Amino acid sequence: MKAIVITAPGDPDVLMLQEVEEPKIKEDEVLIKVEAAALNRSDIYQREGSYPLPEGVSPYPGLECSGTIESVGENVSRWKVGNKVCALLSGGGYAEKVAVPSGQLLPVPAGVSVKDAASFPEVACTVWSKIFMRSRLSAGETLLIHGGSSGIGVFAIQIAKHYGATVFVTAGSEEKLAFCKDLGADVCINYKTEDFVTRIKEETGGRGVDVILDCVGAAYLQKNLNSLNLEGRLFMIGLMDGLATEVKLGVFFAKRLTVQGATVRNRTLEEKAVIVKEVEKNMWPVIVEGKVKPVVCKYFPLVEAAEAHRHMESSKHVGKILLLP
Fold first, then answer.
1. Do 188 and 148 meet the contact criterion of CB atoms below 8 Å apart?
2. What sign results for the dihedral spanned by CA atoms 287, 289, 291, 295?
3. What is the DSSP string of 284-305?
């Protein structure tokens, strides 16, 4: 089969389509013939050599895909050859075929194409596990999403609104903010032209927001803490702008704050299966009802993975970028 190989750490041009060995499935895995794979920011970090792979995972990038089951392991009971599925991966999505643990599969939701279903698994698992399972967002609370027009952002806006939250977003252009508004965001803040802490205080009567989902990291840490309400929860899922900073710790005590950080990729198979099960139970019916829709910015042939990475790095996209083998 063919797969995108990272030939050396570096810029997008190190991504090369090459002939590689087809994966062999274990007794609790299935083999998927990939119809589409989605890009995530961590794919760029992996390409650059700054995101070490968990032990034993595919060396090829790609954390989510969709397609058709081609074969199943002897211990797999729910899934059958020919089923249309999408999957949470630890790697290997940028390929014609990928082996996946059966607990990380989801059925393609009714009303969504197999191709576009690739835009859901990683973002859905990230949003549900970080915002709802760990940060306990509930109806009537306020959520701030940094990077509201990103793949995670556009999904988080829709599902948080469905569950009764008031949604604040930041983005870097009026066009992106307008798109977020159309998806249901209540307060849209251009981080290039206004201070989001000030705006949040104005919009909440000085209280702040209850939950923040942050992909920026060090550069926003103090501002995020200052933006939180009493008992507020900050969850960091990325470090796009810095690994280290200095903060004033008094705000933790004054507001009784909780700060967490995690990725889905380095969770155990058992933990991922729990998250996927929760996603299917709580999110898939909402997607089937059409209340959460896939947002795909652009499709690229698999051979153009380098160009797809350049498009993501330009930050001009809104929603997900998909690769098609």
1. yes
2. positive
3. HHHHHTTSS---EEEEEEGGGH
Question: CA torsion sign, 182 to 316 to 149 to 36?
Answer: positive
**What is the C-alpha separation between 215 and 238, in angstroms, rounded?**
4
Q: Using alpha carbons only, give the angle 66, 1, 325 rounded to the nearest 5 degrees.
A: 40
Average pLDDT for consecutive 10-residue bins of the chain (325 residues)? 98 98 97 98 94 89 98 97 98 98 98 98 96 96 96 97 98 96 98 96 97 90 95 90 82 92 88 97 97 97 98 94 98
- CA distance from start to end of the chain: 10
Residue 191, Cβ neighbours under 10 Å: how many?
A: 18
Contacts 24+ apart (CB under 8 A), 53-58: 53/91, 54/90, 54/265, 54/266, 57/90, 57/91, 57/92, 58/23, 58/89, 58/90, 58/91, 58/92, 58/95, 58/98, 58/99
pLDDT at 108: 98
| Residues 240/234, Cβ–Cβ less than 8 Å | no
Residue type, 325: P
| pLDDT in the model for residue 205 | 97
Q: What is the DSSP letter of 132?
A: I
Is 240 within 8 Å of 218 (Cβ atoms)? no
In this structure, the dihedral spanned by the alpha carbons of residues 70, 72, 73 and 76, taken in order and rounded to 10 degrees, is: 160
Task: Say what angle helices 41-48 and 305-313 make with each other, to 10 degrees.
Answer: 110
Written as one string, the DSSP assignment of 211-275 is: EEEESS-GGGHHHHHHHEEEEEEEEE---TT-S-----THHHHHHT-EEEE--STTS-HHHHHHH
Q: Other C-beta atoms within 10 Å of 148: how many?
A: 28
